[in-house]
UniProtKB/TrEMBL annotation:
The keyword Cell inner membrane does not apply. This is Tryptophan--tRNA ligase. It holds the Pfam family tRNA-synt_1b. GO terms for cellular component: cytosol. Keywords: Aminoacyl-tRNA synthetase, ATP-binding, Ligase, Nucleotide-binding, Protein biosynthesis.
Amino acid sequence: MTRLSAITPSGHAHIGNHLGAVRRWACEGRPGDLYFVSDLHAMTVSYNPARLRALSRELLAVLVAAGIDADQVFVQSDLVRELGALSWVLECACSFGEAARMTQFKQKSDSQGMVRLGLLTYPVLMAADILLSGADEVPVGEDQTQHVELARSLARRFNTTYGEVFTVPTAVTPPTAARVMDLSDPGRKMSKSTQDAAGTVFVLDDPDLIRRKIRRAVTDGEARLEYRPDEQPGLANLLEILAACLGKSPREAAAAYRSYGEVKNAAAEAVIEELRPIRTRAMDLLRDPAELDRVRAHGAARATERGAHRLAAALRLSGVG
Ligand code: ATP
Ligand code: MG
């Protein structure tokens, strides 16, 4: 069983990424699983190259600092030759209609000035990520299940047309993890790519900034101190964050406090303690570029090694290479 998960360097990692994804990868992951920083995916919309490079290093440091084994992490572009080659093979097994049908493409292309061809073809690159790794399970949210379906179709089509090479992956929906909402707007998911950072607690924020952001979190008009997500989404979000950090349920967390102020203070301190060791280790790595380069090169070599035979077989059976 191999699982593959990724995080895109579209911004700094936040507490939602940590509680909803990275923390689980570090503690529930199995030795064969792979985690990567999907920097090539960040190029499908307008971006700044220097920022992309810095964010990719930062996310790699955060993944390793969170406790993911160095054998299991890599930066996607370190495999750009392998992934580029496999993407081409898969593009030639994918119909235009299949790619154009992707809901995410339709949604994202509506909001872009120049629609990059890469935005259309990136689900094929994602198929290459999955099929090169040999992953059989891909944990994804709703928005990505269609892309995993495409990877399944391409794997099956290649296997039946040219010969058995690829494991046919399955999309798995992770058991409902904490879905952390924006502190300034609890109706919106906390996101790396949000422009306004006031409602986003980043993994590398210092403790004082975390306290300030949580103290300013939007709460609700009502004074009831209960976990009622529909009626009091601002308070519910704080209780969920607090509960996830303490390993309790939000209802248990609510019962321990008498005022919003107390909940905010407790949530701030719990988040600070949850993130402290990760922030410390990540900052150490970022201050030691040679060590981070070593970790990065090691992960890239492992991931390349794991996929090499699949790429070689796919090229050979395609009649090229
Ligand atoms: P972007 O705004 O670029 O989409 P993002 O913050 O949504 O960034 P992703 O790279 O899309 O982050 O997702 C990385 C992982 O973090 C995924 O497993 C995703 O489910 C999880 N995740 C993202 N946002 C949250 C959140 N607010 N709460 C819980 N989990 C989250
Ligand atoms: Mg996202």
